[in-house]
């Protein structure tokens, strides 16, 4: 053997030696052939060949150990692959982000090497490479396979080393939008029920993609569609999204609302980029989405919004009405069926569109007269009108006079529900004389009475006082989905609330008035509880009233060619210009305008070239409210100092550079907002605003300096918003470069402060004895990072239902226990987000022994210290904990061992609806059986990537015979649980198997979740989803959606008897279940085939690449699809096969 060969053997590692073996033997053989070997040289040859023979013997000897090691490494690689795939799915589905090419390439390489390993395992000769049944292995085969093992091992190790683990971010999901479909006191009427049923049937029709609903303004289209949405949401459609289009559609706002409801965050600046993200999400075939476009008045470009229509590969639109023309006759499963082999059309079938408009012609124009099914909403019959009026006005049978008048008034409302409801609410609890006067007006003005405008005017006139009338008109000027907090600011600015002195009093008064206006149907609920909206027909009448009675000039997204003449300007009390085209007047913008009666000036513009002259405000001496949004102000007009009566100044999202000090001369100012504006520093002159009650400098991303002693001078301040502004607060010792900056100790002098929105970068900025006890609402973030929790929306006015938020992340050795000022906030916090906390292992015992009595939402993120939410197993008395908690979210809480292991009172956790756990590596279970009753309100359970979790419920000896009941559970998701055994497994006390427990089964008759609608199972080692006990079958009758993927131990999905129990199942997805031999288990003995009645509206089975129309695939269905003995009331199924790319999707539609 040559010296080079010896060096190669000596210097190579164990896994690399075999790459040289062939080269060495070839080299030595060639050397032997070049010379004539003598008999004496044979011994020398073996001596020289001994190192190679040793190596070969070692290779043959270590075969089994290397195969075992390869198997271990491949299993590790598969786990890594699933983790990355889950993160890819989450990033694409929830965030819509493009996945990095390196990640996709890594996944492709993993797929390739696992395929090589599987081929190796299938090699017929592999059985002859090991010792078995007394047979010696064949050395040549053993050597060849050993070389293959080494090669595959090298590739596997390389991929493990380069595994992508922390590429994708995580966001917990969208807020609830249940308020979208609130219908206060909706009345079910025969004509409406018929129309509703027709629309629901159309939505269920797979051939109908677009639906239009039209009818007179005020006929009740929106209320009807909200009822439709409630019927199909969560059943026929996974998501139902309702947006208000109006006559001036705001594209970004509509895109934002769609994204919010899909749980997405749009980070693109351009509308086209945002649309592309939304479109990709809506094309997901696994999700059925209904988009309702309400109050359409103009034609929309669906492409700009991101709403997909059926299209070809080249993007050209396909008429949905011709979709059925692709049918062709063929033989499937040995029976005659209609089979469609089409282009890739099915990808958009998950999204349907429902348009609502007064104009049928607009709906036809939107779809070019094709592919839309239309429904006309008729006016109510006289009988229905009287029924509705009497119900709304609360007319009892005992008052015959009122009943006669009610009948007359209702008939004069011409069958329009808006007119009927508004008029009835206006007259409710009024005396008989008011009813008679109203009826006389209707009879004298019968033509006008047919419009909702008359009822709006009547309701306005009957409002109880001027405060309520003024509030109604202000609401109309604020646009759709306005914030109640903005209304409060307006009311304080205008100063028309009598006897109101504080912001708290103003809030209470405004909430009462908003409630009254909703009762009268003059206002309506918006998509969240902290907002309100108004129907356009009511708003139009409100504008008319404001124009006639209050001399208000309002223009929204119109074109302003010239300023009104001087006579009109002098009469105006309010001017509101919202996103108007002012191109023609920009060059002739008046130096000043004389508006001696003007009390409100509101200008909202996106035109960066618009500039306001320095003396523009000289003629507005009576101005109370000045609101400028999106204006470029290199220098603040000096004429602002003339506005001595100004009470509210809002310069929001403006570019402000100089002369902000002039604001200090506005001594009567109550509200000052610079939110979102581009400012560098806070003028020291603002300390003169002694009457200021609300200061908002949030989201000012360049603002770092607030001069010392300015905040402490604002002694009337009640609300302070500085969130998301990187203020460099001075520490208590005044050290560092920012010694002239304000310190948080100045807050001690603000005795009236009740609301605080603030980010504190360092815990040592907090002064001692700073009490937060008087705060009624707060949003406080304490973290060294400017935005530590991107998944948590900290926008101060965008999070409904809770008014007290606290986020904590204390690292670098800081201890929370001495921080009494912070811990006192736990007593009333409603939304709590915890990051890393030092020395906190038990949330209940170490943070708030009172049990967080007001907490609704608890999130713990990226925490390695917490071991339990509450663990009092050694305590003698039960504890009361989290009585109002609705949502529990744990993400990357790596050392948590249990959620709750203690004696707790009956009202602990009683309101918990949602629990989501992800990457909690030490968690063994979610619940103990002794406390199941406390979680009876649970609606959603999601558990993923908890690698130690064996079961959802751990049984205890005293409950071993009891059923496990979750009576309200609607959604269950179990993903990537490597040690998972079943919904319950062993007895916690003895560790023994529970009697009669079915091994490898997720559910048996002991688990009762009879309201479950959605279930997603992924990467869990179950052998069966259900056992076949009659009770088990009865517990899942409400299941609508079932998604099973990557469950490799499943050999079949369900039995035929179980399938008969899934009466409401609408969608079924099965993928990547490699061991699955069939969907349905072999029929039980004695079962007759024609007894099988599947009421499934959509059955979807997917297999990638290797899924072809073969006999093996047909065997997945263990029953003949035809003929069936279908019940007469259920249409016979149509089998549709859609082939595209490498995916075959099978739909069974009833």
Question: How would you characterize the overall build of this protein?
Answer:
There is one protein chain. With 1150 residues, the protein is α/β, with parallel strands linked by helices. It folds into six domains: 3-161, no CATH class; 178-310 and 345-376, P-loop containing nucleotide triphosphate hydrolases (Rossmann fold, 3-Layer(aba) Sandwich), CATH 3.40.50.300; 325-344 and 1043-1150, no CATH class; 381-462, Orthogonal Bundle (Helicase, Ruva Protein, domain 3), CATH 1.10.8; 754-923, no CATH class; 935-1039, no CATH class. The strands form eleven sheets. It has a 21-stranded parallel sheet. It has a five-stranded parallel sheet with strand order 2-3-6-1-7, with helices on both faces. α7 (190-204) crosses α8, α9 (251-262) packs parallel to α10 and α13 packs across α14. The N and C termini lie far apart (76 Å). The model is unreliable at 1-35, 132-136, 166-177, 311-348, 786-800 and 1087-1150 (pLDDT under 50). This is AAA+ ATPase domain-containing protein. InterPro entries: AAA+_ATPase, Apaf_helical, At4g27190-like_LRR, LRR_dom_sf, LRR_R13L4/SHOC2-like, NB-ARC, P-loop_NTPase, Plant_NBS-LRR. Residues 207-360 form the AAA+ ATPase domain.
Index terms:
single chain; 1150 residues; 21-stranded parallel β-sheet; 29 helices; globular; disordered N terminus; disordered C terminus; LRR_dom_sf; repeat; ATP binding
Précis, in short:
With 1150 residues, the protein is of the alpha/beta class. Helix content is 29%, strand content 19%.
């Amino acid at each position: 053997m040559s010296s080079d060969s010896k060096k190669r053997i000596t210097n190579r590692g164990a896994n690399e030696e075999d790459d040289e073996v062939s080269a060495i033997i070839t080299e030595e053989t060639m050397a032997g052939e070049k010379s004539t070997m003598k008999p004496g040289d044979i011994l020398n040859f073996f001596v020289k060949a001994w190192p190679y023979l040793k190596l070969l013997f070692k290779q043959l000897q270590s075969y089994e150990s290397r195969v075992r090691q390869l198997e271990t490494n491949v299993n590790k690689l598969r786990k890594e692959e699933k983790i990355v795939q889950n993160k890819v799915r989450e990033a694409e589905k929830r965030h819509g982000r493009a996945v990095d090419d390196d990640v996709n390439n890594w996944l492709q390489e993993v797929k390739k090497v696992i395929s090589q390993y599987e081929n190796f395992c299938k090699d017929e000769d592999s059985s002859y490479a090991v010792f078995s049944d007394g047979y010696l292995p064949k050395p040549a085969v053993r050597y060849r396979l050993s070389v293959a093992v080494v090669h595959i091992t090298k590739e596997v190790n390389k991929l493990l080393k380069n595994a992508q683990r922390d590429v994708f971010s995580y966001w917990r999901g969208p807020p609830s939008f249940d308020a979208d479909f609130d219908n206060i006191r909706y009345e079910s009427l025969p004509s409406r029920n018929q129309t509703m049923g027709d629309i629901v049937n159309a939505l269920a029709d797979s051939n109908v993609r677009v639906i239009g609903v039209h009818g007179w303004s005020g006929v009740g289209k929106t209320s009807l569609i909200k009822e439709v949405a409630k019927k199909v949401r969560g059943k026929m459609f996974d998501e139902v999204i309702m947006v208000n289009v109006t006559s001036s559609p705001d594209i970004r706002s509509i895109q934002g609302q769609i994204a919010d409801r899909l749980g997405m965050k749009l980070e693109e600046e351009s509308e086209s980029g945002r649309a592309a993200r939304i479109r990709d999400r809506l094309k997901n075939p696994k999700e059925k989405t209904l988009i309702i476009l309400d109050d359409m008045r103009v034609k929309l470009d669906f492409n700009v919004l991101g709403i997909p229509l059926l299209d070809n590969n080249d993007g050209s639109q396909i008429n949905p009405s011709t979709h059925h023309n692709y049918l062709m006759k063929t033989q499937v499963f040995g029976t005659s069926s209609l089979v469609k082999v089409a282009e890739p059309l099915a990808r958009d079938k998950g999204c349907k569109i429902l348009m609502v408009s007064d104009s049928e012609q607009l709906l036809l124009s939107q779809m070019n007269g094709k592919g839309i099914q239309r429904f006309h909403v008729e006016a109510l019959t006289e009988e229905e009108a009287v029924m509705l009026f009497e119900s709304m006005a609360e007319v009892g049978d005992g008052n015959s006079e009122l009943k006669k008048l009610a009948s007359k008034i209702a008939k004069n409302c011409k069958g329009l529900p808006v007119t009927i409801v508004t008029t009835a609410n206006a007259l409710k609890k009024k005396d008989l004389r008011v009813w008679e006067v109203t009826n006389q007006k209707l009879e004298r003005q019968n033509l006008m009475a047919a419009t909702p405008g008359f009822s709006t005017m009547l309701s306005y006139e009957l409002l109880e006082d001027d405060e309520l009338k003024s509030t109604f008109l202000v609401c109309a000027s604020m646009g759709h989905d306005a914030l109640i907090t903005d209304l409060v600011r307006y009311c304080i600015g205008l100063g028309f609330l009598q006897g109101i002195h504080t912001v708290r009093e103003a809030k209470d008064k405004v909430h009462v008035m908003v409630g009254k206006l909703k009762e009268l149907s003059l206002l309506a609920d918006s998509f969240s509880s902290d907002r309100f909206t108004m129907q356009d027909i009511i708003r139009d009448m409100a504008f008319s009233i404001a124009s006639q009675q209050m001399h208000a000039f309002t223009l929204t997204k119109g074109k302003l060619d010239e300023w009104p003449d001087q006579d009109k300007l002098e009469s105006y009390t309010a001017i509101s210009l919202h996103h108007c085209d002012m191109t023609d007047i920009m060059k002739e913008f008046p130096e000043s305008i004389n508006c001696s009666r003007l009390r409100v000036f509101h200008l909202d513009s996106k035109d960066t070239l618009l500039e306001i002259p320095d003396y523009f405000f000289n003629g507005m001496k009576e101005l109370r409210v000045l609101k400028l949004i999106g204006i470029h102000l290199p220098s603040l007009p000096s004429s602002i100092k003339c506005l001595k009566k100004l009470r509210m100044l809002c310069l929001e999202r403006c570019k402000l550079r100089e002369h902000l000090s002039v604001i200090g001369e506005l001594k009567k100012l109550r509200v000052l907002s610079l939110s979102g504006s581009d400012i560098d520093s806070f003028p020291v002159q603002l300390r003169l605003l002694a009457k200021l009650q609300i200061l908002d400098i949030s989201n000012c991303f360049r603002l770092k300096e607030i001069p010392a002693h300015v905040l402490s001078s604002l002694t009337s301040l009640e609300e302070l918003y500085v969130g998301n502004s990187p203020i460099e607060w001075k520490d208590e010792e005044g050290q560092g470069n920012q010694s002239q900056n304000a310190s948080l100790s100045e807050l001690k002098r603000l005795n009236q402060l009740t609301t605080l929105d603030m980010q504190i970068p360092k815990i040592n900025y907090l002064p001692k004895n700073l009490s937060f006890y008087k705060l009624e609402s707060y949003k406080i973030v304490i973290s060294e990072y400017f935005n530590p929790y991107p998944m948590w929306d900290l926008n101060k006015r965008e999070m409904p239902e809770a008014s007290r938020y606290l986020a904590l992340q204390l690292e670098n050795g800081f201890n929370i226990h001495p921080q009494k000022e912070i811990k006192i906030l736990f007593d009333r916090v409603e939304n709590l987000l915890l990051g890393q906390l030092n020395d906190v292992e038990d949330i209940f015992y170490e943070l708030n022994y009172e049990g967080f009595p007001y907490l609704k939402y608890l999130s713990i993120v990226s925490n390695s210290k917490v071991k339990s939410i509450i663990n009092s197993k050694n305590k003698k008395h039960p504890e009361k904990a989290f009585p109002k908690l609705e949502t529990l979210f744990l993400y990357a809480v790596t050392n948590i061992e249990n959620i709750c292991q203690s004696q707790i009172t009956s009202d602990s956790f009683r309101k918990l609806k949602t629990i989501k756990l992800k990457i909690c590596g030490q968690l063994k279970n979610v619940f103990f059986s002794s406390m199941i009753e406390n979680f009876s309100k649970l609606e959603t359970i999601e558990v993923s990537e908890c690698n130690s979790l064996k079961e959802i419920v751990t049984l205890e000896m005293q409950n071993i015979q009891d059923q496990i009941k979750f009576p309200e559970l609607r959604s269950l998701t179990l993903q990537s649980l490597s040690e998972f055994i079943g919904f319950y497994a062993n007895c916690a006390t003895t560790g023994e198997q529970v009697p009669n427990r079915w091994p490898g089964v997720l559910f048996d008759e002991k688990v009762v979740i009879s309201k479950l609608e959605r279930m997603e199972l992924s990467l869990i080692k179950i052998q069966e989803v259900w056992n076949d006990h009659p009770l088990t079958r009865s517990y899942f009758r409400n299941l609508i959606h079932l998604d099973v993927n990557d469950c490799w131990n499943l050999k079949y999905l369900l039995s035929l008897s179980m399938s008969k129990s899934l009466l409401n199942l609408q969608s079924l997805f099965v993928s990547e279940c490699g061991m699955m031999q069939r969907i349905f288990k072999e029929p039980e003995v004695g079962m007759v085939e024609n007894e099988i009645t599947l009421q499934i509206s959509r059955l979807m089975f997917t297999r990638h690449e290797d899924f072809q129309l073969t006999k093996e695939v047909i065997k997945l269905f263990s029953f003949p699809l035809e003929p069936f003995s279908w019940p007469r009331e259920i249409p016979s199924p149509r089998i549709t096969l859609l082939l595209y790319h490498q995916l075959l999707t099978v739909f069974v539609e009833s």
